[in-house]
Amino acid sequence: MLKQLQPQLHLPFHGQNHLHRRPPPWPRPLHPPPLLPPPPSWRRTRFTAASSSGSTRSDPSSTAPLTSPQSPPPNSRGGGRVRPHGVRRFPAYLFIGGGSLMLGLTLGTMFQPLVFPAPLAEPGTLLDRSRIERLGREAAALPEAQALRASGQWREWDAYSSLSPAQRAGRLSSGPMSGSRGLAVQKIFCQDPDQNQDQGSPTTTESKDEKKGGTKTISFVYLGGALIGWPGVIHGGAIATLLDESLGRVAIRALAAATGVTANLELDYRAPVHAGAFYVVRAQQDEAESTPAKAVVRGTLETLDGRVCVQAKGLFVTPKGFALGKIDPGF
Q: How far apart are CA 293 and CA 258, in angstroms?
C-alpha cells in the first residue's frame, strides 16, 4: 500500500519515521529564557514546612503540613487589628483635596475679571448712565475724598462739568474715551495757596511747608475696560492722555496767560495699571523751575493704598506769536 501511494505523493522515502519527524525550530534562540525564582510566598511556605520537619532541604514527599505565613502582629497602639493602608492615608487625602479646592476657588475669583470680563455698556445707554452714577457715589465715598472735602481747603468739581455737550464731544478724553467703559469718573480736588490766603480759609490739615508749594490737584479716576492694551491692563497711551490733562489743570493756573500747550511730557511706568478700579492722580506745580511763561508740573498715578504706578513730569508754555483762547479752569 505504501509503495502504491509513494508515486502519487511524490515524497522521498527516508524511513518509516520520516512522516512523523518534527522539523527543528528556526531560528534557534541565542540564549535560553531566564529561570524566574519562585514567588516569595511559596518559598516562605516551603521553608516553614522544611523547618517543621527538621530538615534544611525541601522534600516533596514530606508529609509535614504546609503552614501559611504568620499573620501581622496586632497594632501596638490600639491593641487591635492594623488598619488598612488606604484608611491610614484618608485624612491626608482629605486635607490635600480640601486645600486644592480652596486654592482653585481663590485663584478663580482673582482671575475671573481677566478671563471673563463683564460686558461693557455702550455710551449713552441706560446701563451706562446707571453705572456712571454708581461709580460717582463710590468715588465720593472714598475715605481720602471725604477727608479733603471736610478740611475746607480744597475746591471740588467733576471733570468737564463746565463744558457744553458739543465741547465734550469734540475732546478725546470727554468724547471717545468717556462713558462707564472709559474715563467714567474724574472727581477733582484743587488747592491754590494764593486763593486760600486771599479768602482767609483755615489751615487745619496743611502745614506751612506744604502750603509753600504751588497749585496742586488730587483727582480720583475710574478706568474702564475699553482703555486696555493688554488683557486687563490699561493702555500706556490712555494713561499719558490722563496725566497730560491732569498736569495741565495745574499749569493753566500757574501761567500768566491762563492758557498754554504741552511742550514736554516725561512718563516713568513703574507698575501695570489694571482696568475696572479707582486710582488717584496727584499733580503739583514746581515753583522753583516755573516762570510766568512756563510751568513745570510733577505728578503721579497711584493706587488707593498709595502704590505709585506711573510718575510724570510736564513742561507747559505759552507760545509767542500765537493767539490761544483761554481755557476754562473748571475743565
A: 10
Q: With contact defined as beta carbons under 8 Å apart, do 249 and 221 qualify?
A: no
Residues with Cβ within 8 Å of 314's Cβ and at least 6 positions away in sequence, in order, are 243, 244, 247, 248, 251, 262, 264, 265, 266, 296, 297, 298, 299
**Separation in Å, CA 174 to CA 120, 161, 180, 251:** 17, 10, 12, 19
User: What are the residue ranges of helices labelled H in 73-125?
Assistant: 85-88, 90-115
| Residue 131: closest CA among 178, 188, 189 | 178
Cell numbers standing for residue 165: 455737550
Give the integer Cα–Cα distance in Å for 225 and 183. Answer: 10
Check whether 213 has a pLDDT greater than 70. Answer: no
Nearest to 154 by CA among 186, 199, 188, 197: 188
Q: Is the pTM of this model over 0.90?
A: no
Integer angstrom CA distances of residue 55 from 48, 51, 60, 64, 255? 10, 6, 12, 11, 115
The Cα 313–Cα 327 span in angstroms is 21
Burial class, 114, CB count within 10 angstroms (exposed 0-12 / middle 13-18 / buried 19+)? middle
User: What does the pLDDT average to over 158-163?
Assistant: 88
Query: Please, is 22 exposed, middle or buried when counting C-beta atoms within 10 Å of its C-beta (0-12, 13-18, 19+)?
Result: exposed
Cα–Cα distance measured from residue 331 to residue 249, given in angstroms and rounded to the nearest whole number = 8
What does the pLDDT look like over 111-129, one tens digit per residue? 666 555 667 888 889 999 9
How far apart CA 257 and CA 325 sit, in angstroms, is 9
